[in-house]
């Protein structure tokens, strides 16, 4: 279709390109009616450029629009060629200090915690790095898009508002200068003209609502009628729904549909069909029909194409305006002027107003374009920012209402600009005073919550879905209120006072609607049927918490405001509860001769509410009054006489009683909603303006009352009055033995009541209540948190309330109360309480939850025991109350409390007859302790002449009064001290008695009468003796218990050894084998240890016994016995790869015989080292398989392992495995024959072997030519000229048992299957190759790890690794016995021919393209197939040695060819050493054979060094290989690191120390071989620079370098855009830590198909980069991601830590993060060790939710 249109389109384009911008601009300059002229131009050209077909062509459109439409405007504006005009404007411009950079999604932003006025003030990365704040405490976040850099805004920063870049011209006049002075009159006039027209055009067309008709001025006479079916974005439908619908409606492919959906989501609309009206209308109706079933349908419009064209250009125009004003602040000012100029319709008719007011009608793309323009124009111009702010405030109500009904997220609404305006302190203040903004916001908010109950309170119950939606949206208004209040005024004008108080009134109205909302009644009889709605009310409370606090902060700043606010608040509270004493007759309560009148009210029977914001606000204001001392200076200003204390305390008290009753289980039938409410009431997020303030309100009320009266009212509200007012009530009550439940209930209530008294007297750490400041308060919080346990920084932060700036104030005080302990390789840094702070511990700290309290108690007692102190936890010494609250202490010595305490102590003394509890007693003891501390304080601080009125000690010494005549409290305590049933509290009682005596001493020191004291001491003494005896008894009990536990433990341990015998066995064996070497030391000297060849050290292998972990039976490893196997995991690996772009294309045809030296795809085998019988394993595996099938059918659950792929977990350690390796004895010993003394030298040997190979080839040719009977076969053999003693018809007998043979096949097939990713086929000739390859690759990867970590070659290895390598090597050596001999012989022939060429192999790789170690392993392991038919007397050892020497020499030549770079000018002395001379000679030979293509003549010294370094890894691998193959122990020198290993290696490997001697000794054959290697065409190409080759030594692969500072990674990722959807920002940029590629993860756009399934970018990447496994860093989340295959993955803790030694997964806290190298190394090590898959397995086993994640879509 495109080609059809082509000529026509081209014609139009040509005519368009002929337009001259200059000419058009010239015409405009002459025009009398410029508007008409320009509009005509647009009407004519816009539809020709935009929207000419079904799909947009952005590049072409932009190009044409610039040429035909924008160009003329630029000419007109500049009055000359804009390429000169704009730079001139730019030069003349004096830029403002504002940075104003608009943030992209995901871009890092920085906020200074020390200097930012509020947390919304942020800097871009560039400004931040150039600012003083980089050395301050800062927070880092990623932007959600929108918003801009506040650099240069003096109002945003307390200090350092400019970065270096924007600080350029502060030295000049600070005064505001009119930017227009830098422009000429002409330019101003023209700019004004063109801006006015264009801005109006854009606004008009974007807000145009007709679908089929243009504005009259743009209408053309002739027009073609084409239409678009336009699909709009909404937040209701999902991606999947849209994609599905589109496929149906417009008949497109899934891919196209995804494209449409992505654009709709991004831009807000996309045309999905183009054509005539009917055609589009039809698509529309299908879409609407398909999406209207459950929800409201997708929005679709059929629009005339020319409207769409103009709208597209309108958007282009707005961006253009944004660009043009960037040239000059003057232009920007003109645009602002144009935008805010009032239109013909008066108020709210400016272009800016019109855009804002139609915001909710615009699509997403249009909104963001004009929002951006606003940000770069109006918000950047200080003068117009203010005017704009006023427009915004005037439209506020309308904008918010539009937003509430709009279905787009807030970030796409113009209402979101409030954060840019309201957070500017001067603007906020101006808007409050001039536009009454506070009141407007609150009123708007209230208007949207109209649903009220009969008392006018909010009612959230039975909200419809729509109301709930509105409620969610309207919450953003609270955020606006917060922005307005966040910066507090430094000075007050009367205007501000008035408007603030007006706002405060409105706020009180709001709180009034909340006071008493969601009331509840106790459910008796049956359980509630439906959980009532409670979350909405709490959401509101939670959102308002900071606002309430900030209101108080504002009030605190001005006495007049504070007093007025206090009066207003009190008045509203009285309105709420004015009538609470009405109705019923008051009742009279009396105890101990005190009596009080109160109302009849039972929490358990009547309505009660948790929501009391008005009371709580009043409490807050009261504390402020107390702090500000205005109350003492001008009490007449306060309405104190109007305060009715009983009224103040009533509702908070009810609320606290409710909590107590809930705790006592009385409200069980009210369900979970109540439990949740109580939880949040105390929770750190709410408590500051809920629970804390209720306590303060009670303290306020009580401080104005007779404490006896208060206590009686409290008893009555707790419904405990009867118990304590009737002397014998307790006795009667318990003897009735009524309900156990009721007894329990009452006990809990009494405990709770005592706790409340403790809190009322003890909680003095709010400034204003006690004489403390804010730091004391926070210190105390921290001390109590750390009393529970040491905590990490983030944990601590979470337990502390945050203020509106997200600060807890912790950093300032933490040093004073805690030590920091740094983290290790795992875990986090921890804060520990300083020991000296322990004395401030209060067991009844009011913010402890019950669980925390008991944990803290236990921890503190333990600490005391450790320090050998007594374990009493007495109340701490408290700071004094502020004067307004001072009378509170009198509760402690009030008659009613003494009565309560006496009663409870009495119960405890007569402990059998009463229902009492130990916690009750503990609380009474604590209260007594508090009173004693108080009295002591009073005495110590009292001036000499002052009479101390606090006389608690006297009161408790007096016996009780009639009628019950109980003993004194003191006497009772003395009795209890010896009560055997009060063991735990003994220390506390002792502490009380001691303190009592100390006080007595102080009191008596003035009156000198020492009589009572001696009595006391004696008593104390005797008690101490008793105490000692008691302690002894306890110690004895403890000892017995310990013994019992020990016995149990050793029993368990024995079981463990039984069950894990094999483990222990192994450890023992390992010890034995290593010591064996040392024992042999004197006999076998180091030099004689030789790993291979005829001179190999003869070692008799020890008999090996192993135990099956499944059946626990022990068995010896024997050739003829049933097989023992190790659990093993085979995986493909690219860890050593030097070429990540290479992977196996077609596994069916792939030939793995030669490993390329880039090691691009290897097969690694690992094992946990656990041994099983082969048959036990079989049974186990079968049962796993069966179980899995059942499970999948039943639960459709995934597991961490894939049974169908042969995976299972090791039954002992749950390590992921996918096959087993048989345990074998050294296989060479089985096949070695007698050694004839006369062994061939290398040359002879090569000839013999060549002949043998030739013979075999000839035979095979014969065999395949005629498939004849065996007799004929034999005949042919005889006809051939066979080398002496060679018998190709000989079939060796397989020595292994059936079971072992089966396991050899099993493991071989598994390696083949995994390594090549093909279906298992044990007959495939590639099976043995894969086995050898895995052996070689695994050894190579171990060698790399050891070298990288600088560890000795034969140092102590973990025994699992040792076992694995030994079994793997021996397995690979034995594997040929289960394969067809001729297949392996064929392999050997080809392998051999790669070094010793013969005629029949031509397609072999040149030596540059062969990894020599793989070649060595394959040759050595294939050789027995030849040797077993050779009866000439050549031993296996001889063959090994010659193969090894041959390959080593090939490797040396390889190194000489590839790795001898030119020297760096260091002229060395003439070669002196023997090695140097030799290598130089060799080099010359090589050079000669390459036809001198090998350049230069490096010095011998350099050559020798290069060769040695290059060959070292190969030698090390070979040593490991032969060690495991032949079992020769390693010389002890290898076991220590640091020694020069080269000579030892050579000796061990039977090599001359001068490796070049090998060539010299065998020069006869070597010269011809070297020649054949060097004459190869590939070698020539390489030397001539036409291709690359690997050089040696190969460097180890490392994970990529990560930057020190995490934010530079964020920045890097924010610049990264999705590679598939043209410049879009990627939502989840993810970094491959292996190769450094950034990927667009977890997103539709970058899904690709892999093996018939859609996979995300990461999974797709693992297939090429990591052959299925991958290590990634999810940059936005700061999370490491491990992936393996399509179904496995886990998250791993990132290598970035903050200053507190914690990671920040999800970047929630925003503390600066720095690279922790140790942790990164640990990740790298996991990778090197091939443990990533294993790590994933363990993570998934530990956390089942990980199994459910769709890893493949990441
Ligand atoms: Zn900036
Ligand atoms: Zn800056
Ligand atoms: Zn700062
Ligand atoms: Zn077994
Ligand atoms: Zn295991
Ligand atoms: Zn993408
Ligand atoms: Zn990669």
Provide structural commentary:
The protein is α+β, with helices and mostly antiparallel strands and 1754 residues long. Strand 21 and strand 22 form a beta hairpin. The longest helix is centred in the middle third of the chain and has 49 residues. The two termini are 37 Å apart. 44% of the residues are buried. The structure holds zinc ion (7 copies). One zinc ion (ZN) binds next to strand 13.
Briefly, what is this?
With 1754 residues, the protein is of the alpha+beta class.
Strand and helix map with partners:
Layout: H1 2-17, H2 21-30, H3 34-49, H4 58-78, H5 82-92, E1 105-112, H6 125-129, E2 138-144, H7 185-206, E3 227-232, H8 239-249, H9 254-267, E4 269-275, H10 277-291, E5 300-304, H11 305-324, H12 329-340, H13 351-357, H14 364-376, H15 382-394, H16 396-405, H17 418-422, H18 425-435, H19 437-448, H20 465-474, H21 476-486, H22 494-514, H23 535-556, H24 559-577, E6 587-591, E7 594-598, H25 613-628, H26 630-633, H27 645-663, H28 671-682, H29 691-703, H30 707-717, H31 721-725, H32 729-735, H33 740-762, H34 774-788, H35 793-798, H36 811-817, E8 818-821, E9 830-833, H37 850-866, H38 895-909, H39 918-941, H40 952-957, H41 969-977, H42 986-1007, H43 1011-1059, H44 1061-1080, E10 1105-1107, E11 1114-1116, E12 1124-1133, E13 1162-1173, H45 1174-1195, E14 1208-1209, E15 1216-1217, E16 1219-1222, H46 1227-1231, H47 1242-1265, H48 1270-1279, H49 1298-1316, H50 1326-1348, H51 1359-1374, H52 1381-1395, H53 1412-1422, H54 1424-1427, H55 1436-1459, H56 1474-1489, H57 1500-1526, H58 1542-1548, H59 1557-1561, H60 1563-1574, H61 1577-1583, H62 1606-1614, E17 1629-1632, E18 1638-1640, ...
Antiparallel strand pairs: 1-2, 3-4, 3-5, 6-7, 8-9, 10-11, 12-13, 12-16, 14-15, 17-18, 17-21, 19-20, 21-22, 22-23, 24-25
Helix pairs in contact: 2-4, 3-4, 3-11, 4-7, 7-11, 7-12, 8-9, 8-10, 11-14, 16-19, 16-20, 18-19, 18-21, 19-21, 19-22, 21-23, 22-24, 23-24, 23-25, 24-25, 25-29, 27-29, 27-33, 33-39, 34-36, 34-37, 38-39, 38-41, 39-42, 41-42, 43-44, 47-52, 49-50, 50-51, 50-53, 50-57, 52-53, 53-55, 53-57, 55-57, ...
One zinc ion is lined by residues 1618, 1620-1621, 1626, 1640, 1643, 1645-1646.
């Amino acid at each position: 279709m495109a080609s059809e249109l082509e000529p026509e389109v081209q014609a139009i384009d040509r005519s368009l390109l002929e337009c001259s911008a200059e000419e058009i601009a010239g015409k405009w300059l002459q025009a009398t009616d410029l508007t008409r002229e320009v509009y005509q131009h647009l009407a004519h050209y816009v539809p020709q450029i935009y929207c000419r077909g079904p799909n947009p062509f952005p590049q072409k459109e932009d190009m044409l629009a610039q040429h035909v439409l924008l160009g003329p405007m630029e000419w007109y504006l500049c009055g000359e060629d804009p390429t000169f005009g704009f730079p001139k404007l730019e030069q003349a411009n004096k830029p403002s200090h504002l940075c104003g950079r608009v943030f992209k999604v995901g871009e890092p932003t920085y906020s200074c915690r020390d200097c930012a006025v509020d947390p919304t003030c942020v800097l871009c990365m560039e400004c931040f790095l150039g600012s003083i704040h980089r050395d301050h405490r800062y927070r880092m976040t990623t932007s959600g898009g929108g918003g801009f850099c506040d650099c240069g805004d003096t109002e945003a920063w307390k200090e350092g508002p400019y970065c270096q870049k924007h600080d350029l011209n502060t030295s000049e006049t600070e005064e505001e200068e009119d930017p227009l002075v830098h422009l000429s009159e002409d330019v101003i006039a023209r700019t004004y003209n063109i801006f006015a027209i264009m801005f109006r055009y854009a606004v008009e067309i974007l807000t145009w609502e007709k679908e089929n008709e243009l504005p009259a001025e743009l209408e053309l006479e002739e027009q073609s009628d084409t239409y678009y079916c336009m699909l709009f974005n909404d937040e209701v439908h999902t991606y999947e729904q849209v994609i599905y619908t589109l496929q149906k409606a417009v008949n497109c492919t899934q891919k196209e549909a995804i494209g449409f959906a992505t654009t709709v989501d991004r831009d807000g609309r996309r045309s999905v069909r183009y054509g005539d009206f009917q055609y589009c209308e039809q698509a529309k109706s299908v879409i609407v029909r398909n999406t209207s079933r459950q929800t409201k349908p997708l929005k679709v419009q059929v629009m005339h194409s020319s409207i769409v064209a103009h709208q597209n250009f309108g958007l282009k125009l707005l961006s253009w305006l944004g660009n043009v004003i960037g040239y000059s602040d003057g232009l920007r000012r003109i645009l602002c002027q144009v935008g805010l100029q009032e239109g013909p319709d008066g108020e709210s008719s400016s272009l800016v107003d019109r855009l804002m007011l139609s915001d909710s009608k615009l699509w997403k793309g249009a909104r963001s374009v004009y929002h951006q323009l606003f940000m770069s124009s109006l918000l950047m111009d200080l003068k117009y920012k203010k005017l704009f702010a006023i427009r915004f405030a005037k439209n506020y109500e309308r904008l918010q209402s539009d937003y509430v009904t709009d279905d787009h997220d807030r970030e796409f609404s113009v209402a979101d600009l409030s954060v840019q305006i309201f957070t500017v302190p001067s603007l906020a203040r101006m808007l409050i005073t001039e536009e009454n903004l506070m009141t407007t916001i609150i009123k708007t908010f209230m208007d949207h919550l109209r649903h009220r109950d009969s008392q006018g309170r909010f009612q959230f119950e039975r909200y419809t879905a729509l109301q709930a939606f509105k409620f969610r949206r309207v919450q953003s208004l609270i955020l606006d209120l917060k922005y307005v209040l966040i910066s507090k005024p430094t000075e007050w004008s009367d205007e501000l006072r008035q408007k603030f108080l007006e706002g405060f009134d409105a706020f009180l109205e709001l709180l009034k609607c909340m006071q008493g909302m969601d009331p509840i009644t106790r459910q008796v009889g049956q359980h509630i049927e439906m959980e009532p709605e409670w979350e909405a009310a709490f959401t509101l409370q939670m959102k308002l918490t900071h606002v309430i606090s900030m209101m108080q902060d504002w009030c605190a700043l001005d006495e007049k405001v504070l007093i007025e606010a206090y009066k207003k608040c009190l008045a509203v509270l009285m309105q709420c509860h004015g009538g609470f004493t009405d109705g019923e007759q008051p009742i009279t309560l009396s105890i101990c001769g005190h009596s009080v009148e109160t109302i009849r009210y039972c929490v358990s029977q009547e309505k009660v509410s948790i929501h009391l914001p008005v009371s709580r606000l009043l409490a807050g204001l009261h504390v402020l009054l107390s702090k500000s001392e205005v109350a003492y200076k001008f009490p007449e200003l306060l309405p104190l006489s109007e305060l009715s204390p009983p009224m103040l305390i009533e509702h908070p008290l009810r609320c606290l009683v409710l909590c107590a009753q809930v705790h006592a289980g009385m409200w069980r039938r009210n369900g979970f909603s109540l439990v949740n409410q109580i939880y949040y009431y105390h929770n750190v997020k709410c408590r500051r303006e809920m629970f804390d303030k209720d306590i303060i309100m009670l303290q306020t009320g009580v401080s104005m009352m007779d404490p006896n009266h208060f206590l009686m009212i409290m008893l009555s509200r707790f419904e405990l009055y009867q118990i304590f007012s009737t002397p014998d009530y307790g006795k009667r009550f318990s003897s009735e033995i009524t309900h156990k439940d009721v007894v329990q209930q009452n006990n809990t209530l009494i405990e709770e009541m005592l706790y409340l008294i403790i809190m009322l007297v003890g909680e003095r750490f709010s400034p204003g209540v006690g004489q403390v400041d804010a730091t004391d308060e926070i210190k105390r919080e921290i001390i109590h948190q750390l009393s529970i346990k040491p905590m990490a920084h983030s944990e601590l932060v979470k337990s502390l309330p945050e203020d509106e700036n997200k600060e807890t104030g912790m950093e300032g005080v933490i040093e004073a109360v805690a030590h920091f302990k740094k983290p290790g390789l795992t875990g986090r840094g921890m804060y520990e309480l300083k020991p000296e702070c322990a004395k401030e511990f209060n067991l009844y700290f009011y913010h402890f939850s019950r669980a925390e309290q008991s944990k803290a108690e236990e921890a503190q007692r333990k600490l005391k025991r450790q320090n050998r102190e007594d374990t009493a936890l007495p109340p701490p010494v408290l700071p004094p109350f502020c004067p307004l609250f001072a009378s509170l202490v009198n509760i402690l010595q009030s008659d009613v409390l003494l009565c309560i305490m006496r009663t409870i102590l009495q119960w405890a003394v007569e402990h059998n007859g009463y229902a009492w509890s130990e916690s009750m007693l503990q609380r009474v003891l604590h209260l007594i302790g508090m009173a004693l501390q108080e009295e002591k304080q009073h005495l110590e601080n009292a001036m000499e002449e002052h009479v101390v009125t606090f006389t608690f000690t006297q009161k408790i010494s007096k016996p009780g009064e009639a009628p019950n005549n109980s003993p004194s409290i003191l006497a009772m305590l003395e009795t209890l001290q010896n009560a055997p049933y009060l063991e735990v509290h003994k220390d506390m009682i002792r502490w009380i008695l001691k303190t009592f005596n100390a006080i007595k001493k102080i009191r008596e020191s003035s009156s000198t009468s020492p009589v009572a004291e001696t009595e006391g001491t004696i008593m104390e003494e005797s008690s101490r003796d008793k105490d000692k005896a008691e302690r002894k008894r306890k110690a004895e009990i403890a000892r017995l218990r310990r013994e019992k536990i020990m016995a149990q433990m050793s029993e368990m341990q024995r079981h463990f050894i039984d069950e894990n015998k094999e483990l222990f066995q192994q450890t023992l064996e390992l010890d034995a084998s290593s010591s064996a070497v040392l024992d042999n030391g004197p006999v076998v000297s180091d030099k004689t240890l030789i790993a291979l060849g005829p001179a190999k050290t003869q070692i008799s292998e020890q008999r090996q016994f192993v135990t099956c972990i499944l059946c626990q039976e022990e068995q010896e490893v024997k050739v003829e016995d049933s097989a023992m196997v190790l659990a093993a995991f085979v995986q493909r690996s690219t860890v050593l790869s030097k070429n990540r772009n290479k992977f196996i294309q077609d596994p069916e045809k792939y030939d793995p015989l030669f490993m390329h030296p880039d090691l691009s795809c290897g097969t690694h085998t690992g094992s946990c080292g656990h041994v099983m019988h082969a048959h036990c394993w079989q049974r186990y595996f079968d049962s796993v398989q069966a179980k899995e099938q059942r499970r999948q059918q039943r639960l459709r659950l995934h597991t961490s392992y894939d049974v169908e792929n042969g995976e299972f977990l090791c039954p002992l350690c749950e390590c992921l495995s996918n096959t087993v390796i048989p345990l074998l004895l050294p296989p060479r010993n089985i096949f070695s024959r007698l050694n004839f003394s006369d062994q061939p030298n290398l040359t002879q040997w090569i000839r013999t072997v060549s002949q043998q190979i030739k013979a075999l080839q000839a035979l095979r040719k014969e065999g395949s030519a005629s498939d004849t009977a065996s007799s004929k076969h034999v005949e042919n053999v005889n006809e051939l000229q066979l080398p002496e003693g060679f018998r190709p018809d000989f079939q060796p007998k397989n020595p292994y048992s059936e079971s072992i043979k089966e396991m050899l096949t099993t493991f071989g097939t598994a390696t083949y299957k995994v390594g090549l990713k093909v279906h298992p086929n044990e007959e495939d000739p590639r099976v043995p190759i894969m086995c050898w390859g895995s052996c070689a690759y695994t050894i190579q990867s171990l060698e790399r790890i050891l070298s990288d970590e600088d560890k000795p070659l034969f140092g102590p290895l973990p025994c699992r690794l040792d076992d694995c390598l030994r079994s793997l090597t021996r397995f690979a050596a034995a594997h040929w016995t289960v394969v067809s001999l001729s297949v392996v012989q064929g392999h050997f022939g080809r392998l051999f021919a790669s070094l010793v060429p013969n005629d029949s192999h031509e397609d072999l790789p040149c030596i540059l393209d062969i990894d020599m170690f793989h070649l060595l392993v394959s040759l050595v392991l294939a050789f027995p197939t030849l040797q077993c038919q050779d009866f000439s007397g050549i031993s296996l050892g001889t063959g090994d040695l010659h193969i090894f020497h041959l390959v080593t020499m090939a490797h040396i030549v390889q190194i000489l060819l590839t790795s001898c770079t030119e020297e760096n000018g260091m002229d060395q002395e003439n070669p002196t050493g023997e090695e140097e001379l030799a290598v130089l000679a060799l080099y010359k030979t090589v050079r000669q054979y390459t036809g001198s293509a090998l350049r230069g003549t490096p010095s011998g010294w350099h050559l020798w060094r290069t060769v040695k370094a290059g060959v070292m890894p190969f030698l090390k691998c070979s040593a490991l290989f032969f060690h495991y193959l032949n079992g020769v122990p390693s010389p002890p020198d290898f076991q220590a690191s640091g020694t020069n290993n080269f000579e030892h290696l050579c000796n061990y490997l039977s090599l001359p120390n001068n490796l070049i001697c090998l060539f010299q000794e065998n020069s006869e054959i070597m010269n011809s071989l070297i020649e054949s290697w060097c004459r190869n065409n590939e070698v020539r190409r390489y030397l001539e620079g036409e291709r690359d080759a690997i050089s040696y030594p190969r460097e180890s692969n490392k994970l990529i370098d990560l930057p020190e500072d995490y934010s530079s990674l964020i920045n890097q990722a924010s610049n990264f855009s999705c590679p598939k959807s043209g410049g879009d920002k990627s939502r989840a940029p993810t970094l491959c830590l292996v190769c450094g590629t950034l990927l667009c993860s977890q997103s539709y756009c970058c899904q690709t198909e892999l093996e018939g399934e859609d996979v995300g970018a990461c999974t797709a990447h693992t297939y090429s980069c990591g052959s299925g496994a991958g290590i990634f860093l999810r940059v936005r989340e700061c999370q490491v991601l491990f992936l393996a295959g399509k179904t496995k993955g886990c998250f791993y803790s990132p290598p970035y830590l903050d200053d507190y030694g914690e990671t920040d997964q999800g970047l929630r806290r925003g503390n600066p993060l720095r690279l922790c190298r140790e942790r990164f190394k640990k990740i790298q090590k996991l990778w090197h060790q091939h443990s990533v898959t294993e790590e994933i397995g363990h993570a998934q086993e530990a956390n089942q939710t990980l199994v459910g994640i769709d890893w493949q879509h990441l």
